[in-house]
Amino acid sequence: RETEADLRQAIAEEALVLHYQPQRRLRDQKLVGFEALLRWPHPTRGMIPPVEFIPLAEETGLIVPIGAWVIRAACAEAAQWPEDLRIAVNLSPAQFRHGDLVCTVADALARTGLPAHRLELEITESLLQEDPEDVVRLLRDLRGLGVSIAMDDFGTGWSSLAHLWRFPFGKLKIDRAFITELERDPKLSAIVATIVGLGRILDMTVVAEGVETEEQARILTAEGCEQGQGWLFGRPMPAEAARRLIAEDQ
Ligand code: G
Ligand code: G
Ligand code: MN
Ligand code: NA
């Protein structure tokens, strides 16, 4: 198992990397952006996935410097892409508790020259469970910079609908759990249709996560879901592969 010392060393050596997973418009499969996903290429253990070290990073507070690096690196990469492509970055609750997140984001945009509207920050419902008023204030400050805020893993968390009323998200990402069984259970089509309807009324773009089959994409398109992300459209890939995909897609 990796230790705090290993992780500190990885940060010091700038050994962490970002992979990028494509997001597409369902109607015509047009590339609309990528989600940045953190990876730790370990000298002996191969590529360590984030589920294995983000909990450690959160416990130790290392997620704050790691998260700041992720924001900066993702913005720097996206600044090289065509102007119509966005970059989505995941945020941990700890990043809201410590450090100056608004300054970190503003600084990353200023340094990389990425226009704010091309950056999307993904949060999960667990964040809003903590201290809703403080968090909502911070989210408003972030939005004040011109970035958009997406609710990740939507539908699985605690009292989801209350959050939609509390804060104007730019995007709702329907959790993979709802998409996986979409072909087998019509109840799930109804749930997806309801989320899509909510998104339309509240002016939030709805994205389906974990789209793996053509049939899932077909059902989602029929329900009016706007965008998809998942293995059908592309796995998370290194920056150079993402650049090649962008070039092929133009
Ligand atoms: O590809 P996947 O195994 O990459 O990601 C697993 C989980 O790790 C997801 O829930 C994702 O939100 C989270 N994750 C990936 N990259 C980051 C990151 O840069 N910061 C945070 N806080 N979470 C991340
Ligand atoms: O941030 P979030 O929790 O949404 O992280 C996305 C996670 O989902 C990452 O671990 C990513 O590798 C994974 N993922 C992305 N697309 C698919 C997919 O089509 N199927 C499955 N099983 N996992 C996916
Ligand atoms: Mn995410
Ligand atoms: Na998610």
What are the defining features of this structure?
single chain, 250 residues, alpha/beta, TIM Barrel, eight-stranded mixed beta barrel, 48% helix, globular, binds guanosine-5'-monophosphate, binds manganese (II) ion, binds sodium ion, Bifunctional diguanylate cyclase/phosphodiesterase
Task: Characterise this structure.
This protein has a single domain (4-249), classed as EAL domain (TIM Barrel). The chain contains 12 helices and 10 strands. The chain has helices at 4-12, 50-60, 63-78, 93-97, 101-112, 125-130, 132-144, 160-166, 176-180, 186-202, 214-222, 239-249; strands spanning 17-25, 31-42, 46-48, 86-90, 119-123, 148-154, 171-174, 205-208, 227-229, 237-238. It has an 8-stranded mixed beta barrel with strand order 1-2-4-5-6-7-8-9, surrounded by 4 helices. Helix 3 (63-78) runs parallel beside helix 5.
Shape field: globular
Which percent band covers the strand fraction?
A: 15-25%
Intertermini distance? 43 Å
Ligand roster: guanosine-5'-monophosphate, manganese (II) ion, sodium ion
List low-pLDDT spans: none
Supply Rg: 18 Å
**According to CATH, what is the topology?**
TIM Barrel
- In the CATH hierarchy, what is the superfamily? EAL domain
Strand order of the largest sheet: 1-2-4-5-6-7-8-9
Domain EAL: 1-250
Protein name: Bifunctional diguanylate cyclase/phosphodiesterase
Keywords: Membrane, Transmembrane, Transmembrane helix
Task: Offer a quick outline of the entry.
The chain is of the alpha/beta class and about 250 residues long.
